[in-house]
Write a sequence for this structure.
């Protein structure tokens, strides 16, 4: 068994303030550096940056050899003690990060050691290089890095190592994803063709198709506008800031790293950036989420098809994710989250629910139904349940994002009334809408916790989750381990179906996204 040493570090100039991380993977036998990765995170705390560095380092090692054993060395006593299980994780922001890290490799193959800062200079220099690059508005690049030389270490030779090194050094300069670690940029699957091929090799044919589709959507001009569930996507001027409005709100298109957002049924709509690498189980679809240990976690092992999973894992918890049918606000493209008027389905929406109910009845695979507490989802779920002869359970965690004072407004109206607030919201997933709304980061944390609870409750079963744009896209994004801006690169129509499967080893597999064949 191959052995790696992962050294990681993270820092914040302000705590919270401009933050970044760096991580190094070395061959334990030779001491050679075989991979480096660094990223500017935007505004974050020291602890978040430390955890992000850990996850990135583990993922870089996993990309080199998924069967390897790993010894982690960090100068963060907090991270080391928490990951080793000796300290309890109390902070809600740390739980999903720790869970994410625990999913990359089986726990029995990872050991942790605290080291003094002076022995962690390589990773520390990478983190500072990333923060310096972010301050210049640039992405950290391995070609300009002197961290290894400054630390007295020589990168290992070989084409394979060089490619891995390059793949693991993609930076998201604009934003750090606060939520459960959904914000993690791991091996940024979008960076280059070589990376895409690598991911495809890990995840198989299904992953390749999903990745190609995701990258195709990501290539769209950020100024494109789409109207989905309940709000149009007006374009937003500035660094490619497009806006899409879906379920019930406007959704900024992905123009800057993580600064775009879409509001659909009731919140932003996370998009898919990479499929086939690491994934995090989320909603009601199929995709084994990487080993999760705690709150939300993301799968670093990309198991895109059941055939790649060990035969002894048993059936996955499969979440079939159904977005509710149209409401009167949908064609008007207005923000419609969980803090507004709670509209019921329109005549069109009820017809859509009837059609999806018929389609699910033909499939005959749904064993349970769980719905968001909002009227439009409960009504949709009720129509399906009547057709399938099942009861409907309600889970508060599946509700839409709260858009605060923007509820019921179009994107254009929000731009006129709250221009500064809208600009800040589009620039960071941690910013909440005007008037005490819910940020996309907070939504992601809530969704991750709900996902984990439902995975445990419905292990080995196929469950229909009737929810909204933001929860579904967040589940998909987490399953794929995609970065924040991916939230805005997915289509999610009213009454559409998506599927994610979550396996016992923590891996997640996205099986289906935005299927509307039953509506045609």
């Amino acid at each position: 068994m191959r052995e790696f040493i992962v050294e990681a570090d993270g820092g914040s100039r302000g705590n919270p303030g401009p933050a970044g991380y760096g991580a190094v993977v070395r061959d334990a036998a030779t001491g050679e550096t075989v991979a480096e990765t660094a990223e500017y995170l935007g505004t974050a705390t020291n602890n978040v940056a430390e955890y992000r560095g850990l996850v990135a380092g583990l993922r870089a090692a996993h990309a080199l050899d998924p069967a390897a054993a790993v010894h982690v060395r960090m100068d963060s006593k907090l991270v080391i003690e928490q990951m080793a299980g000796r300290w309890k994780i109390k902070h809600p922001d740390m739980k999903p990060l720790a869970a994410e890290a625990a999913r990359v490799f089986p726990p029995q193959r990872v050991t942790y050691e605290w080291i003094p800062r002076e022995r962690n200079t390589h990773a520390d220099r990478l983190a500072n290089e990333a923060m310096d690059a972010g301050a210049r508005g640039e992405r950290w690049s391995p070609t300009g890095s002197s961290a290894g030389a400054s630390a007295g270490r020589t990168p290992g030779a070989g084409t394979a190592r060089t490619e891995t090194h390059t793949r693991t050094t993609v930076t998201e300069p604009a934003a750090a994803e606060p939520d459960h670690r959904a914000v993690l940029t791991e091996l940024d699957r979008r960076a280059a063709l070589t990376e895409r091929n690598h991911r495809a090799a890990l995840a198989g044919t299904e992953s390749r198709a999903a990745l190609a589709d995701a990258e195709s959507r990501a290539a769209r001009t950020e100024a494109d506008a789409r109207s989905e569930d309940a709000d149009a996507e007006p374009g937003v001027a500035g660094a490619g800031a497009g806006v899409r409005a879906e379920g019930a709100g406007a959704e900024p298109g992905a123009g800057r790293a993580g600064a775009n957002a879409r509001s659909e049924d009731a919140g932003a709509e996370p998009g898919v950036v990479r499929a086939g690498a690491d994934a995090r189980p989320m909603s009601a679809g199929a995709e084994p989420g990487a080993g999760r240990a705690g709150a939300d976690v993301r799968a670093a092992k990309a198991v895109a098809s059941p055939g790649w999973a060990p035969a002894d894992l048993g059936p996955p918890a499969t979440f079939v994710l159904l977005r509710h049918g149209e409401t009167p606000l949908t064609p008007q493209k207005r923000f419609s989250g969980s803090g507004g008027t709670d509209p019921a389905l329109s005549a069109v929406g009820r017809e859509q629910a009837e059609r999806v109910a018929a389609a699910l009845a033909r499939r005959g695979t749904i064993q349970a139904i769980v719905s968001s507490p909002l009227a439009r989802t409960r009504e949709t779920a009720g129509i399906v349940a009547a057709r399938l002869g099942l009861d409907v359970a309600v889970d508060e965690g599946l509700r839409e994002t709260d858009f605060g004072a923007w509820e019921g407004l179009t994107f254009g109206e929000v731009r006129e009334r709250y221009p500064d607030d809208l600009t800040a919201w589009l620039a960071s997933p941690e910013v909440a809408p005007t008037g005490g709304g819910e940020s996309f980061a907070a939504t992601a944390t809530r969704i991750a916790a709900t996902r984990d609870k439902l995975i445990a409750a419905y292990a080995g079963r196929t469950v229909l989750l009737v929810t909204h744009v933001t929860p579904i896209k967040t589940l998909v994004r987490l399953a794929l381990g995609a970065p924040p801006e991916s939230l805005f690169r997915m289509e999610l129509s009213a009454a559409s179906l998506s599927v994610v499967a979550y396996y016992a080893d923590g891996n997640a597999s996205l099986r289906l996204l935005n299927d509307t064949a039953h509506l045609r």
User: Anything to note?
Assistant: The radius of gyration is 21 Å. The chain has 14 helices and 14 strands. The mean pLDDT is 74. The longest helix spans residues 46-64.
